[in-house]
Each structure stands twice: as C-alpha cells, then as structure tokens.
Here is the input.
Amino acid sequence: MTVAILGVGVMGEALLAGILQGGRPVSEVLAAEKRPERAAELTERYGIEVVDNAEAVKRADTVLLVVKPYDVGPVLDEVAASARPGQLFVSLAAGITTSFVEARLPGGVAVVRVMPNTPALVGEGMAAISPGSFSGDEHLAEAEDLLRSTGRSVRVPEKQQDAVTAVSGSGPAYVFMVAEAMIEAGVHLGLTRVTATELVVQTLTGSAALLRETGEHPTVLRERVTSPGGTTAAALRKLEEGGLRADFLVALEAARDRSRALSSGEPV
Ligand SMILES: NC(=O)C1=CN([C@@H]2O[C@H](COP(=O)(O)OP(=O)(O)OC[C@H]3O[C@@H](n4cnc5c(N)ncnc54)[C@H](OP(=O)(O)O)[C@@H]3O)[C@@H](O)[C@H]2O)C=CC1
Ligand SMILES: O=C(O)[C@@H]1CCC=N1
Here is the structure.
C-alpha cells in the first residue's frame, strides 16, 4: 500500500518522519515537493522518492494533502485526472472542507479531514479526524493508522474542525508564547537566560505530565500550587486583572473565524 505526501514542509515532514518511524517501508512512501533543493534534502534525509504531484497520486493508494490551504485548490486541479475511485485523500489543511476536496476529485474517491499539530514531530501530536461524504470507518481507521506514531487522535464531526483548529492546531503556538513570556520575565527578575529557559521548559513539561498522569482537572492542580496569601495568588491576581481568560476566549474565536474564512478561499 503506497502513501503519497503532497507538500512536505513543517507538517508534511512531521507526518513523513512519523509514518517511517511507525515501520512503514520507505519504498511504500512517496513525496511531492515543488522545489528541487527541498526534494533533494528529503531524499538525503529519509531515502524517500520525490516525484511530481500527478505521478505521486497515480502511484498512491492514499494521498496526504499537506500544502497551504490556498494551494489545495490548484494542487487538486493538477492531480484530479490522476485520481481514481477507491483512493483515499486525507487533507490536513486548515479550514479546507471535505466537500471542497470532494468537488475537485472524481466520484468514488474517499476524503478524510485531519487537523494535526506540530508536537507530532516528537510523537506527541494531537489530531482530530472527520469523515467526508464518501468515507467510512475503514477510511478513518486508515487515517488513524497513518497518524498513530505521531501521537494521539480523536474523531470529531467535521463542523467542529474550526474549533479544533483554534484549540489544538494552533494551540502549541499559544504555549510557546507563554514560554517566551515567562523566560523574558525571569530574565527581567535577574536570572540568566539559560537558567530561565531551563526553569520554564521543565516547568511546562512537568506541568503537562502532571495533568496527563494524574487526570486531575487543571483547577485542582492550580489550587494545589496556590498557598493562601502566597506568591502564586499574587501572580494569578495580576493575570486575572490583565484579562488572561477573556483574552483566550477572544483569541480562540479569532482562530476559529480565520479557519472558517480559509474554507471560503479568503486570501492571505
Ligand atoms: N504548521 C502547523 O502547525 C500546522 C499546519 N497545518 C496545515 O498543514 C498544511 C501545511 O502547513 P505547513 O507545513 O505549516 O506549511 P509549509 O509551508 O511548511 O509546507 C507546505 C509545503 O508544501 C509545498 N508546496 C507548495 N506548493 C506545492 C505544490 N504545488 N506541490 C507540492 N508541494 C507544494 C511547500 O513548498 P515551498 O516551501 O517550496 O512553497 C512546502 O514545502 C497547511 O494547510 C496547514 O493549514 C495543520 C495543522 C498544524
Ligand atoms: O496557523 C495555521 O493556519 C496552521 C493551522 C493550525 C496551525 N497552523
């Protein structure tokens, strides 16, 4: 069974690495990339064959679409004549609906939509999967199988994908911004940047592990850190005054709205 990845940038490479790590032989994976120097880099790094989009689709049983949302339409127009009934197309592009993809491919091609995130690069990704009009359980299972070594996945109705994109698709960027802000604050308090970075990275990693391993609600874990009249309460009060929670609501609404706009082909 051959898998083709169209667009091997940040996300495509995370998937490629995960698929190979999951034990699929490199002879069963094809890549399609625009720039010859990127193609050469991928062949050197993974031993993978890089071909053009149409050939990749011709030879593949499953096609992963990992180009930018505004490139999905042109790429589908380029490959539609090479697609055939019985194939599975898995789109990972933010905002692009299964009906958008289905409308550009021959009837009988199954389409699944996935919203992944970049921790997939280290096997800690979170992906949400939705079926299109012509895909069944076997197609969702195939997508899950491909994603298995990149982290976790859940099934959601497609109408929830814009919200998923706002929460877990873009989510790593919010966490990295918190990391940046905490490191800079530590430097402001007189720590070296190296020490501040180590403190923050391990604090985030440890807190995430605590959340996962205890299964406790974040409120309970936060309360355990917050001693009456102590340092944490003083800091949290400032974050509440700054409107952190409301900011997250507004920010995630903006991400959801942007995801919706991408599906209507709104330009960058
Ligand atoms: N990055 C993220 O955190 C996430 C991204 N996504 C989705 O994944 C998709 C890819 O995003 P990301 O990896 O960040 O973007 P990148 O720009 O890193 O990757 C896109 C890749 O597609 C290549 N490409 C562009 N046009 C074509 C073409 N016609 N044929 C073949 N390859 C082409 C690009 O090459 P070149 O550089 O030469 O243009 C690039 O290597 C997007 O749709 C995004 O919404 C989803 C969830 C998370
Ligand atoms: O910013 C974006 O549009 C993509 C989708 C989710 C994360 N990155």
Remarks:
- Residues 6-12, 32-35, 38, 53, 66-69, 71, 75, 92-94, 115-118, 169 surround NDP (ligand 1) (CB under 6 Å).
- The longest helix spans residues 193-214.
- The beta strands are 3-6, 29-32, 49-51, 62-65, 88-91, 110-115, 125-131, 151-155.
- DSSP finds twelve helices and eight strands in the chain.
